[in-house]
Fold this protein.
Amino acid sequence: MLGPFSRLLFGSPTAPTAAPAVVVRTGPTLEGVELLRSFGSGETKTYAIQNVSLGMDRCQMNLLMGPSGSGKSTLLAVLSALLRPEGGHVRALGQDVWRMSERELEMFRLRHCSYVFQGYNLFPALTARQQLEIVLKWGEGCGVREAKTRAEKVLGQLGLAKKMHLRPAQLSGGEKQRVAIGRALVKNPSFLFADEPTSALDWENGQQVIELLNGVARQQSATVLVVTHDHRLLPYADRVFEMADGKLATADGCVELTHATGHPGHHAPPPQKFEHSAPVPTGPRLRLQEPQFSLT
Ligand code: ADP
Ligand code: MG
C-alpha cells in the first residue's frame, strides 16, 4: 500500500528496532572518498560522479550546487545510503556505509537519515499528523500517545497546528513541504538529505523551508545536505559544494561562507526580501573566504 518510499521511513516490518552500533570516531560526520558512479554501458555509459571526495560536519548546512546533469542528485544518493557507488567509500558516524549488509543499511537509514524531496512523498490517505505519527510508530515503536504528542509538537513548531487534521490534497505546496520536513525532523535524524526541496515552491514558502532545514542543523545538531540550483539559498548555508560534469569544481570542493552579521537562518532574518527572479543578494552580509567563488 505504501510503496517503496515507505521503506526509507519505516524499514521493513520485520526489521529490528536497534540500529547498528556506532563506532567512536574522529573526522567529519559524513565523508565521501573518491566516489565513482556511472549509468549505462558501452557507448551510452555516462559517469555521473567521478573521483568526488568531500566531508561534512554536524550542525552544518551544506549546499550542493551546479548545473542540471552535473551529478548532484547522484552524489546525494550515494552519500545518503540510497545508491551504491562503483568506487570509493562513504563514511558516516564512523561507519563504512557501503560495507554494511542490506539489513544494516536499512537500519542505518531508518535510525539516522531523513529525506526531503521536491515531490513531498506524502501518503494521500493520511492527515498531516498521521504522516508524522506513522514514522514514530513504525520506525521507533512509539506508543500512540507519545507519537501524537511528538507529532503535534513538531507540527505546531512548523506553524501547522490548525492544519494537522488535513490530508495532502487539502494542503498548499508550501504546507505539504513543511509536513514532509516535519516528518523528517520528528525522528531527530543525524543526517537530513534534501534534493531540490524548494524548486516547486514560491520564494516565501521556499524561504520558510530553507530556514527550517537550517534549524534542523542548528538545533538538532544534524548534518544537512541540500541539493539546489537556487542561489537565493546561499545566505543560509555554511558551506557550498559546486559540481560540474560529475566533479567538484574546486580542489577541496567547497567554499566556506562567513556570515558577517550572523547566520541569517539562525539569528536574524535576511535584511531584504527578494523577488523570485531577483539577483542574488550581495553586499556586506556575506564574506567569502575563497576568492574564486562568485555570488553573481
Ligand atoms: P543533477 O542532479 O545534477 O541534475 P544527476 O545526478 O541526476 O544530475 O545526473 C547526472 C548524470 O547521470 C546525467 O547525465 C544523467 O543523465 C545521468 N543519470 C542520472 N541518473 C540516471 C539513471 N538512473 N539512469 C541513467 N542515467 C542517469
Ligand atoms: Mg537532480
Q: What stands out?
A: The chain has one domain: 30-125+167-288. Residues 242 and 248 are 6 Å apart (CA to CA).
